[in-house]
Design a protein that fits this description.
Number of helices: 12
Bound molecules: zinc ion
Helix content: 40-55%
Radius of gyration: 20 Å
Strand order of the largest sheet: 1-2-3-4-6-5
Shape: globular
Order of helices and strands: EEEHHEEEHHHHHHHHHH
Strand content: 5-15%
């Protein structure tokens, strides 16, 4: 699928949940047809196009979705109750869309197995790197929302807590953004694409995300994968570093099987002991979470600047 599936329909008025259902007036409307299922709606302000170049990021949406689909093994837009509306704007665009948010994927009803409506906002005023990488990150959340992953959120919360779910979700989204889609050269503007692909570049990303803090990771006793979120103050470089490390050392497929197994094997309220968790991790990686974390810290030299 490529740009052939993208059609322009002129300007329209539309309501967004992100704008509390207020009307966004006179916004450019495109639809993307992926060849089956629901059309995807793309809304773009003139200001976004003027600043970043016509079709920047959204012109590649079809290729991005195809690339993720290939890895995730399903087409979310085929689900009968799924839908996707994406907004590209800036704070100068004069819309009621939120000025203070960067990029976000939202859903306002639960997915009961047949998909759910999603909106993605892309506020270019708050994005400082190539928006395409942020868009692919958000699309990972869209795939999660249409799958067992978000449907099993309460099970993950019961299994490992809020930070465990956060790590699985954001780790997968960062991994997707870095490894699932090959970005063609950016010919539309001067925004840089972060080339994150190996230990050295992920290390640098974590240091950069820490904003020059001397310590990227605080504290040394990491017992559960969830612990890295607080220990790094939610550093996306660190979150990616662990997700990537497990994918490389034990196989991305094992990581996916582990994620799915938790959703299928546990429930949202049953008691889960430390032994259960150790058995689960051993089943897929032959090690406990704390053992993997220890070797991961050594591999990344405890994220001390090199
Ligand atoms: Zn995210």
């Amino acid at each position: 699928m490529n740009k052939e599936g993208l059609s322009y329909h002129g300007k329209t008025d539309v309501r967004s949940k992100y704008a509390d259902e207020k009307v966004i007036k006179d916004i450019n409307h495109y639809t993307l047809n992926m060849g089956s299922g629901k059309q995807i709606n793309i809304y773009v302000t003139d200001d976004y196009d003027q600043k970043y170049g016509k079709e920047f990021a959204y012109g590649e949406l079809g290729e991005m979705l195809s690339a993720i689909e290939e890895k995730r093994g399903f087409k979310p837009y085929d689900l009968p109750h799924s839908s996707l509306d994406i907004y590209f704007y800036t704070n100068e665009s004069n819309t009621p869309l939120p000025p203070d948010r960067q990029a976000n994927t939202g859903a306002w009803i639960l997915n009961c197995g047949t998909g759910m409506p999603n909106e993605i906002i892309m506020n270019a005023s708050r994005l400082h790197r190539d928006h395409r990488q942020t868009l692919v990150h958000e699309l990972s959340h869209y795939f999660d929302n249409q799958s067992y992953f978000t449907m099993s959120k309460n099970t993950y919360l019961n299994y490992g807590g809020e930070d465990f779910y956060f790590w699985l979700s954001e780790g997968a989204a960062e991994y997707c953004s870095c490894f699932y889609y090959s970005y063609p050269a950016n010919t539309k503007n001067k925004l840089a694409t972060f080339d994150i692909k190996d230990r050295a570049s992920i290390f640098q990303y974590a240091i950069q995300q820490a904003g020059g803090r001397a310590k990227v990771i605080e504290g040394t006793s990491l017992r559960s994968f969830a612990d890295i979120v607080k220990a790094s103050k939610g550093n996306y470089g660190v979150i990616l570093a662990l997700y990537w490390y497990i994918a490389v050392q034990y196989g991305l497929e094992q990581l996916h099987l582990y994620t799915k197994y938790i959703a299928e094997h546990y429930t949202s309220s049953g008691l889960i002991s430390m032994e259960d968790r150790e058995d689960t991790t051993r089943k897929f990686f032959n090690k406990t979470e704390s053992q993997i974390l220890e070797e991961w810290l050594v591999y990344f030299n405890y994220f001390k600047s090199e």
